[in-house]
Each structure stands twice: as C-alpha cells, then as structure tokens.
Design a protein that fits this description.
alpha/beta, Rossmann fold, three-stranded antiparallel sheet, 4 helices
Length: 169
Amino acid sequence: MKTIGIFYGSSTGTTESVAKRIAQKLGVEDAHLYDVAKASPADMASYEVLILGSSTWGAGDLQDDWYDFLAKIKKLDLTGKTVAIFGCGDSSSFADTFCDAIGIIYTDLQGTGCRFIGSVPTDGYTYDDSTAVIDGQFVGLPLDELNEDDQTNARLDQWIDSLKKEGLE
C-alpha cells in the first residue's frame, strides 16, 4: 500500500472521529494522523497519498484551522501526490452549503500538481446546493453525522473501496 497521511481540522471532534475511522479502515497508524492546527506543510512531504478532512461551518466556511494551513499547502508543489477529500456537514440546517469545505479545499489545490481521487455520486444525499459538487458529483466524501449518521459506515466503506480502485494501494 502507498504511504498515507491523514490531515483533518475538527472543532467539535466529529471530523477527527471520522479521520480515525478512515485510518482504522485503511490500517493507517495514529502517527500518520495530523490535526492541521498542529501540523506543518512539511509533514506532507513523505506521503504518496494525502487524505484531507474538514467540517463545514456557518454558511459554507472551512473549519477555522484549515484557513492558515490551506494557504500554505496551496503554494506547494504536490506533483506525484494523490489527494482524497472528506468532509462533515449538516444537510438539514445548511442544505444550501452542504459540505462546501470539500469544494474549497479541492478548488484551492488546483494547480498544485496533485491527482484527485474519491469523487462520490450525489445520489442518496439530501441537500440543496454545494460547492463540492462539480460535474454532477461530489469531489470528495460528504458525511452528515447529525442527520444521516446511520449511513456513515456504508458511505465510508464505499468510498474506501473506490479509493483502492483508483490507485490508493
């Protein structure tokens, strides 16, 4: 398997919990999990695959710790790296900005040379709009732990299977 680093921003612990679940399902040790509030862009250098996670806050905002971190990593040359993005959001209260953080990270990393994997069909999701939807698919895995937590395990398993098919291993 390729070397995997998981980088997340979490204010309430939800995104951190999902990051740990992804790590467990992929067999990634805790030493390769990074809270972006404490991480450095240099921490990404040794990984072939970067899995990035952020919750969406308010009217489509990134989780706070991502702002400074993303500003730094979008200046990096990520050529040769594979990137997958996941995010947590509230599809009921914020249906018009559901998991926008995924779309923000995706857009900001355009031009860095990385290859994105892990797009997800919009079927089965209840929301009105999202900047994470490009060409009819989410550019990463959206999760709603508040309203659709009963679907999280199946969504994680399907996403991880698709990542493996797209070259994670």
